[in-house]
Amino acid sequence: MITLGIDIGSLSTKSAILNDNSVVAYDVVYTGGDNRQSAETTFNNVLAKAGFTKKDIDVIVTTGYGRENVPFADKHVSEITCHAKGMHFLNPSIRTVLDIGGQDSKAIQIGEKGNVVNFMMNDKCAAGCGRFLDIIARALGVQLEELGGIHQTATSTARISSMCTVFAETEVVSLVAVGTPTPSIIKGVHESIATRAIALLKAVGIKEPLGMSGGVAKNIGIVSALQDLLNMKVEVTDYPQVTGAIGAAYIGQSA
Length: 255
Fold this sequence. Notes:
Oligomer: single chain
Distance between the termini: 11 Å
Order of helices and strands: EEEHEEHEEEHHHHEHEH
Structural class: alpha/beta
Radius of gyration: 18 Å
């Protein structure tokens, strides 16, 4: 059975195709101001990558903020459920999921079959999410993708006291002005994000193994900070950014 999942996030829209228990192809595009258009774009992209046409797809499932704005979808499912199922598909041993996306964070405790046991979501502020990191990277004059590697070279940690995006950016600029090394600032930012994420995880209840999904999971500095502060392994799959889309496609397998 061939199924396709689309996850429409605030910053990026992701898609994935499953053929039974295999990930055939995936795609990521910027959401922009038209989430219906971004869904159509990633849909066409992932079909081309897989060498399929729309007729080859048995079921299309959407998730995320704009999930009900896709007219060609067969089913709409919440992002909490899709991230739980996606993580279960990719690593069935995981019992707690931390998802840090572009504008929100989710902590999800899951059961043996990938069912949601408990969850908590921080969607009131973008602080500590992908958009926050993008702003910090711009303030430091580095590429977003470079943050994790630069973190690894830090020999000290700068203290970032504010988690408000605007105030934290001002604080970073002030640290740069007094000559604080960039790696130390980045490590401080990562540790402040990890501290915020851990509070969310503890509110839900951490059951090991702990897995991380979302685009921020590609940042080795964040993963390292979480592991150091929690004193436990944080598992990251091969497809962290498209976990939700994979979960949607996985749900389509039993539709």
